[in-house]
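Lecture 7 notes: from sequence to structure.

We start with a single chain of 249 residues. Read the sequence below before looking at the structure.
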Amino acid sequence: MRRLFPAILLLLGTAIARGQSAPCPCPPAVPTPPPLWSGKAELSYLSTSGNTTTNSFGGGLELEYKPAPWTFTLKTAYLRASTNSVTTAETLTGDLKGVRDLTPRVDVFLAAHYLRNRFAGVRGLVGGDGGAGYKLLLGPVHSLRAEAGIGYTHEGQLVGGDRNYASARAGLGYKWTFSKTADFTNDVSFLEDLQASSNWIFSEKAAISAAMTSLLSLKASWTLIYDHVPVPGFKRTDTVTSLALVAKF
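Now the structure, written as tokens:
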């Protein structure tokens, strides 16, 4: 009996130890899905005084809604500049786009565009188009997407008659994420009048962003708009260089 009692204690201790060290049959962690809504807002301001007083103000808003396989994007931007209290530049742009992924690389889209630039003679340029896109680079470091489509464009001009025409649009969107907190983007668009091939508009926007916190970042950008057949009395090229504070939400 004395020999049996220690053996029983040993077996009980072993069983308890095994029960404590057995792994928990917990289910694997489920990855958190990306948010349906996201966005960012930016603000820029520049002021000089002395012999000449100048002021410039810029703002922008971008909203994205992603109920897979769809992605809906709204972008707006406003810029106003003045010298000695006289407005010298004012532009307003807006873009609304819906993209549906067909495969990881191929998608189709519908888009609407708006531009007002009275200092380039454009009272309002309104257009809509639809087409297809293809992702040449999928990231995560380099992303590149090309698209092409056809649509219709109305150009309201301050001088001369308005223009209405069927149009073709092509575009490229590139993003280089060269660190965890910084990236470079370059978006190019080409719009052509299908009735008069000499009438076309080229636009490009290059930007570099660097995060300061999880919510705030600094962005430096350069924008070019070239109108090959401008409104009579106005120049073909407009450029904007900007430094803005961006808030993500």
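Residues 4-17 have pLDDT under 50 and may be disordered. Keep this in mind for problem set 3.
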